[in-house]
Amino acid sequence: MAAAVRLLLRAGSACNASSVCAPHTSTQRRHAAHFTFQPEPVPSQYGPTQKMNLFQSVTSALDNTLASDPTAVIFGEDVAFGGVFRCTVGLRDKYGKDRVFNTPLCEQGIVGFGIGLAVAGATAIAEIQFADYIFPAFDQIVNEAAKYRYRSGNLFDCGNLTIRAPWGCVGHGALYHSQSPEAFFAHCPGIKIVIPRSPVQAKGLLLSCIIDKNPCIFFEPKILYRAAVEQVPMESYQIPLSQAEVLQEGSDITLLAWGTQVHVMREVAAMAQEKLGVSCEVIDLRTIQPWDIETVCKSVVKTGRLLVSHEAPVTGGFAAEISSTVQEECFLNLEAPITRVCGYDTPFPHIFEPFYIPDKWKCFDAVKRMINY
Amino acid sequence: MLSETTQSSSRKFCPPLVLGVKRLCLHSLSQVFLSETDLRTIMCPKYDVLGLGASVQSSVFENTTGSAVLPGALQQQPFDSLAEKPQFPGASAEFVDHLEFIQPNVISGIPVYRVMDRQGQIINPSEDPQLPKEMVLNFYQKMTLLNTMDRILYESQRQGRISFYMTNYGEEGTHVGSAAALDPEDLVFGQYREAGVLMFRGFPLDLFMAQCYANVDDLGKGRQMPVHYGSKDLNFVTISSPLATQIPQAAGAAYAIKRENTNRVVICYFGEGAASEGDAHAGFNFAATLECPLIFFCRNNGYAISTPTDEQYRGDGIAARGPGYGMLSIRVDGNDVFAVYNATKEARRRAIAENQPFLIEAMTYRIGHHSTSDDSSAYRSVDEVNYWDKQDHPISRLRHYMTARGWWGEEEERAWRKQSRKLVMEAFERAEKRQKPHPDLLFSDVYLEMPPSLEKQKESMWRHLQQYREHYPLDHYEK
Questions:
Q1: Active-site residue (options: B371, B376, B393, B420)
Q2: pLDDT digits over B55-96, tens only?
Q3: Numbers of helices and strands, H then E, in chain B
Q4: pLDDT tens, B100-125?
Q5: CA–CA separation, A141 vs A112, rounded Å?
Q6: To the nearest whole angstrom, how far is the Cα of B477 from the nearest Cα of chain A?
Q7: Spatial separation of the C-alpha atoms in residues B405 and B416, rounded to whole Å
Q8: Quick check: A105 contacting B, CB < 8 Å?
Q9: Minimum Cα–Cα distance from A213: chain B residue
Q10: Quick one: closest CA in B to A99, which residue?
């Protein structure tokens, strides 16, 4: 029996402190997160709040929507039992199986179906299980959803469509559970792309996407689903789209990011202040397309330096578009070249994630170089 | 040698394995805690396809003493014989004990439903929908008006007046027969060769022309190539070029309409070529699983540009795919307007009543080229085309039906030809003279509201035009 237990332990799990275990040389512990989530002050303007993590804030937004809009339906793979990230827990029981339902395993079908629902006047909320799997739906999104209103001369549109997908690195997701594909869609006029940094932001931005009369893609940073916990208003509220938010004012350099990376930038700002005496202005872009050019440029005119950071590969990433526009608008104000700290031009690796991601040390180092340019 | 019953019992215990794959099967919790010796000997027996019993087991399944070991749990416990049926969640079926592949039947495939023969005579009087004279005359006039418009607009492309055109020659029956069986409120998703549906519903010649000329009257604001029609009032969703994308959309629209409880159906047209797209598979599967009131109408016209059907699929056309999705399906003679009418009418009635999709495969022939960019003599014989034009055409078959009843004759034909041509030519001449839409319309409707960045781009375009206006055809565009 003891021998059997020994066998099973050796076969599978991490070694514990039992004397029967041969000591491993520096066991690699699975990495702790590369940032710390700081909850923001409780919003007071939207009514009573409740402690929620990010997936619960999404559930809350969906709950509010299903309650107030009788045409609203939620669908995708595995949403009926609550979803692989628990974003739709309880909704089917509460609102009925004709409103919260599973679809066959087919992303092009999910989005195509969603477009049709929207064209017929229903509020369609489609879930793609991971942003990495959105690509079969690329044709429907780019050639159909984005162009529906334009090509029909505004006779038809699918503005009632919102597509939600978990997004970004999660520590162990590797190639197909970590992607940030916003740049592919930013190149396509006609859709909106929104990425929240926190539960309060997620609920307000998602509700704005749902109400917005244009097809929207809402990417949810999966690493924040459980890790980000805040007091979130229980009632419906909206945070405007295409408005970036200045989280922290500063005078020496603008740090621009979205989603999870905003929290990395906040830490970079603290490090820069402490170690370099550099005053950083931190901006959360929030809407990737159409993006708030005015707020970003206003900031760069003030600071003279811009650092943009995202997990997605650097080449053709959205930082490239931002850099190009900002240098056009603010050329003479720049004290240093615009710097991008992004993922490398590789698929998202598994065991090499700690080296791949644009962590606070890489960003800190970039700040240092830019200040000393 | 194990007995028959034990053999079949042992098969039931072990999930079907790929032959030769060794796996640790846990038949009971007691087997979780094992000695090292045990681990080497606990294997699932090879799946005994031939029913030869213990002799099939390989010598690998040996313990240290060299004798074959059968895990104790496999040996005797008989399963409840009353439950000797497959229990798989994935299919509801009986067992079968002989190996036989299901043969796809393409030699004598799904039969083709028709009401009239090729000479327009009713074959089975009980299938004659016995439509009133005015209705049948209207069918005929719509089909021939479409044909006339096609001739004139095809010519106008050849003369450089419009950029592109697609004719509907030979398929007029599929359009009019199906459109007539629908309510005006039913939502239509098309591919691009369904202009007759729109014409039947009353889309004016002026608006067909406006779209083809992309002039100021175009409801689509001049943004798309010719024949990409759309009409909100007539419930005809604007055509888009990518093929089959409308199929899953139609399923979604049908689902929304089902929830509204308004007794409307959605119809979705596509060709046999588009049916090869992944979106078609997606649409069929979604419509069936989500119980959508939807008619899938496939125009199987023999060609996808130059690709004949034997290079498009190997099965029995599109209708045979329906049952694979759990969908009621029928194949009809698409050149028989009454057959199309009857099938669509019944499909509509049941789709709404039963909330399920129907698949109608209308067999027909594309008499014209794929488009003005195509010369089909490159891939098919003139004889083949002539056969369909002369011997099996929806318009002539209906005309025979009408003349047999004394509803139509040479005089009516002459008069109508003259009148329909006049109508088309007048609309054509009006459309020719109209201006193009205002260039501002290049920038609107991308989003509901125009983003600031796009406003800036529009302003920059006008600044450019101010300076370089002689290089741009501004005179043809609305000021």
A1: B371
A2: 434 444 444 444 444 444 445 555 555 568 899 999 989 999
A3: 15, 8
A4: 999 988 788 999 999 999 999 999 99
A5: 8
A6: 17
A7: 18
A8: no
A9: B448
A10: B259
pLDDT band, very low/low/confident/very high, at B33 (cuts 50, 70, 90): very low
Kindly calculate the radius of gyration of chain B based on its CA atoms and give it in whole angstroms. 31
Residue A13 confidence (pLDDT)? 43
Q: Helix (H, G, I), strand (E, B), or coil: what is residue A256?
A: strand
Q: A116 and B252: CB-CB below 8 Å? A: yes
- Measure CA B205 to chain center: 27
Give residue-wise pLDDT tens across range B345-358. Answer: 999 999 999 999 99
pLDDT confidence band for A208 (50 / 70 / 90): very high
Residue A136 at interface with chain B, using a CB cutoff of 8 Å:
yes
For residue A218, give how far its alpha carbon lies from the nearest alpha carbon of chain B (Å). 17
Sign of CA dihedral B244, B366, B360, B178: positive
B253/A7 CB distance under 8 A: no
- Specify the length of chain B in residues: 479
Q: Is B172 a known active-site residue? A: no
- Burial bucket for residue A322 (CB in 10 Å: 0-12, 13-18, 19+): buried
Strand partners, A49: A233
Mutate to test the interface with A, among B34, B445, B454 (most CBs of A within 10 A): B445
User: Shortest CA distance to B196 belongs to which of B76, B323, B335, B380?
Assistant: B335
Residue type for A91, please? L
DSSP class of A273:
I
- What is the rounded CA–CA span in Å between residue B123 and residue B121? 6
The per-residue pLDDT for range A235-267, each reduced to its tens digit, is 999 999 999 999 999 999 999 999 999 999 999
Distance between CA atoms of A216 and A210, rounded to whole angstroms?
Answer: 8
Report the SS3 class of residue A137: helix
Q: At B224, list the tokens.
A: 């798309």
Q: How far from each other are the two terminal CA atoms of chain A, in whole angstroms?
A: 67
Residue with tokens 């590789």: A346
pLDDT at B65: 47
- Quote the CA–CA distance of B171 and A342 in Å, as a whole number: 55
Substitution target in A102, A119, A192 with the highest count of B β-carbons within 10 Å is: A119
- Type of residue at A234: M
Quick one: which of B188, B168, B166 has its CA closest to B178?
Answer: B188
Facing residues of B301 across strands?
none
Question: What is the C-alpha end-to-end distance of chain B, expressed in Å?
Answer: 95
For residue A12, list chain B residues with Cβ-Cβ distance below 8 A. none
- Contact in structure between A159 and A149 (CB atoms under 8 Å): yes
Q: Do B39 and A7 touch (CB under 8 A)?
A: yes
Taking the C-alpha atoms of residue A188 and residue A267, their distance in angstroms, rounded to an integer, is 33
Q: What pLDDT, on the 0 to 100 scale, is given for residue B28?
A: 37
Cβ B187–A120 below 8 Å, yes or no? yes
- Rounded to 5°, the CA angle B449-B454-B460 comes to 140
Per-residue model confidence (pLDDT) at position A23: 53
User: Does the annotation mark A177 as catalytic?
Assistant: yes
Name the phi and psi angles at A216, rounded to 5.
-125, 145
Pairing of the two strands A245-248 and A280-284: antiparallel
pLDDT per residue as tens digits for the range A46-82: 999 999 999 999 999 999 999 999 999 999 999 999 9
**Is residue B460 flagged as an active site residue?**
no
Q: What pairing do the DSSP bridges indicate for beta strands A73-76 and A100-102?
A: parallel
